[in-house]
């Protein structure tokens, strides 16, 4: 098993090899030419536009009164019927019903992640759909092209606004994006011209167990560099991939040996304390639980990586199959010249690790974090394990106290929320985490690194303002 670090600079390219573990899969978007701009002139509401431009075009050939598809799904999407058919109705699909979904609620952000309709039309999320919810049926429209990314974004904005039947609540300009999701096989990322690439070469993961590894890798940067975007592509199945650096409490002469693979678990299943000792000094840099991730920081914002730095690279995989799995990952970190940096990004890492989840019970844990400086938060994403059923984040303090700003009901693929404009938090304001767990085990659960333990972490990024 090898990991290669490829770094493009004016002076050339260099490659470093060492060992590591990781994997997942690749989705991509097929970009098409933009179409002429639509306007609201012909429509009295955002929902009327959805009816005319989406349901009537892509859905009512099946979802009309009397058709076998409408009878099977108990859903009619023709004009004058569709809105009442969708809003606050329980889906006919038994698995979705047991999961507590509605076809579509009108509560804004929570309704997006509690919507069977959104699950069925959100084609870019189809790996999660088919791997985690095979009983939900097929992505819609059945047998046809998926909705365009612009249509999906328009519908998403409408749902976030409370899914009203009346009113203009979604940005019609997003409909200019006529690209559609296209599933592609796992492919290498191109080496960035401005930045560097980490490649974890193919490896085998044994069946029916957890494996989590760290490996420290220097990046050989004689000058500070500034990361303003990252892209990660993994073969199917990874629980997560994270790059850490070390805080100032660990001196450089105490860093782990470069290139040495450090397992989290010993052969007998116990924790390897020699590996875990370094985690108390970790600072999150970038990471994902999604098989394909591209994230760009706001214009002029970049994360500073000091000169002569390195990354402690972390992969966690839980193989629940009886087969050996092959893993591989590419991670690109894109850089910005220092002269173009207006704000230095800082990493948000809010970790609550002292909770207790009684056996056989549903438990909700709350934890509030307040900040001592004004912050502009532009990214949020949660991290927990399989017993988490709902992860909510509220603003704590100030004029927006109690406002829900993030929710995830999917522990494996939590949304990476891009906030534009950023959430502005003043001194003594912050976030309240409210996380619900269903501990169906016959043993209590606490914070732990294994996928069978639990976690309660909010990651993200921000910049400070005086």
Give an overview of the whole structure.
The structure is a single chain. It is built from 9 helices and 24 strands. With 466 residues, the protein is mainly beta. The protein is globular and about 70 Å long. Strands 1, 2, 5, 7, 11, 12, 14, 15, 18, 21 and 24 form an 11-stranded mixed β-sheet that branches. The model is unreliable at 1-36 (pLDDT under 50).
Can you lay out the helices and strands and say which pair or pack?
Layout: E1 3-9, E2 12-18, E3 28-30, H1 46-59, H2 68-73, H3 82-86, H4 94-98, H5 109-112, H6 116-121, H7 126-132, H8 149-160, E4 180-182, E5 195-205, E6 209-218, E7 225-234, E8 240-246, E9 262-263, H9 273-276, E10 282-288, E11 292-296, E12 301-305, E13 310-319, E14 325-335, E15 343-351, E16 356-357, E17 361-370, E18 375-383, E19 388-396, E20 404-408, E21 417-425, E22 430-439, E23 445-446, E24 457-464
Parallel strand pairs: 12-15
Antiparallel strand pairs: 1-2, 1-5, 3-4, 5-14, 6-9, 6-13, 7-11, 7-12, 7-14, 8-10, 8-13, 15-24, 16-23, 17-22, 18-21, 18-24, 19-20, 19-22
Helix pairs in contact: 1-8
Distance between the termini: 47 Å
Helix content: 10-25%
What Rg, in angstroms, do the CA atoms define? 23 Å
Beta-strand percent range: 35-45%
Query: How would you classify the helix and strand content by structural class?
Result: mainly beta
Low-confidence stretches: 1-36
Q: Treating each run of at least 4 consecutive H or I residues as one helix, how many helices?
A: 9
Largest sheet: 11 strands, mixed
Total strand segments = 24
The outline comes out as globular
Could you report the average pLDDT, rounded to the nearest whole number? 84
């Amino acid at each position: 098993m090898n990991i290669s670090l490829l770094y493009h600079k004016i002076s050339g390219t260099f490659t470093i090899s060492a060992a590591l573990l990781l994997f997942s899969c690749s989705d991509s978007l097929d970009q098409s030419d933009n179409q002429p701009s639509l306007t609201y002139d012909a429509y009295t509401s955002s929902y009327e536009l959805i009816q005319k431009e989406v349901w009537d075009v892509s859905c009512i050939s099946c979802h009309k009164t009397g058709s076998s598809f409408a009878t099977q799904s108990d859903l009619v999407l023709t004009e004058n019927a569709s809105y009442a058919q969708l809003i606050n109705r329980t889906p006919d699909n038994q698995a979705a019903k047991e999961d507590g979904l509605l076809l579509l609620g009108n509560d804004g952000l929570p309704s997006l992640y509690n919507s069977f309709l959104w699950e069925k039309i959100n084609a870019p999320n189809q790996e999660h759909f088919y791997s985690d919810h095979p009983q939900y049926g097929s992505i819609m429209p059945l047998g046809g092209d998926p909705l365009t990314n612009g249509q999906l974004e328009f519908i998403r904005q409408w749902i976030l606004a409370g899914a009203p039947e009346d009113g203009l609540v979604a940005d019609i300009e997003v409909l200019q994006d006529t690209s559609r999701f296209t599933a592609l096989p796992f492919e290498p990322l191109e080496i960035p011209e401005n930045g560097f690439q980490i490649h974890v070469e193919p490896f085998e993961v044994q069946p029916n167990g957890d494996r989590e590894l760290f490996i420290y890798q220097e990046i050989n940067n004689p000058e500070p560099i500034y990361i303003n975007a990252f892209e990660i592509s993994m073969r199917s199945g990874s629980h997560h991939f994270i790059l850490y650096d070390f805080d100032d409490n660990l001196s450089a002469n105490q860093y782990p040996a470069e290139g040495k693979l450090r397992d989290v678990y010993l052969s007998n299943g116990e924790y390897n304390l020699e590996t875990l000792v370094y985690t108390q000094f970790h600072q999150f840099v970038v990471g994902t639980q999604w098989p394909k991730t591209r994230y760009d920081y706001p214009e002029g914002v970049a994360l500073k990586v000091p000169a002569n730095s390195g990354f402690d690279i972390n992969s966690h995989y839980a193989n629940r199959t009886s087969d050996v799995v092959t893993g591989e990952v590419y991670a690109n970190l894109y850089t910005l010249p220092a002269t173009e940096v207006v704000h230095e990004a800082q990493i948000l890492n809010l970790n609550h690790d002292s909770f207790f989840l009684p056996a056989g019970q549903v438990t909700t844990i709350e934890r509030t974090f307040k900040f001592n400086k004004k912050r502009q938060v532009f990214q949020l994403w949660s991290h927990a394990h399989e017993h988490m059923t709902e992860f909510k984040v509220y603003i704590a303090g100030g004029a927006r106290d109690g406002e829900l700003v993030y929710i995830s009901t999917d522990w494996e693929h939590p949304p990476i929320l891009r906030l534009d404009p950023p959430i502005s938090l003043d001194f003594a304001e912050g976030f309240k985490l409210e996380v619900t767990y269903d501990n169906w085990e016959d043993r209590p659960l606490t914070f732990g690194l294994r996928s069978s333990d639990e976690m309660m972490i909010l990651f993200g990024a921000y910049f400070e303002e005086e």
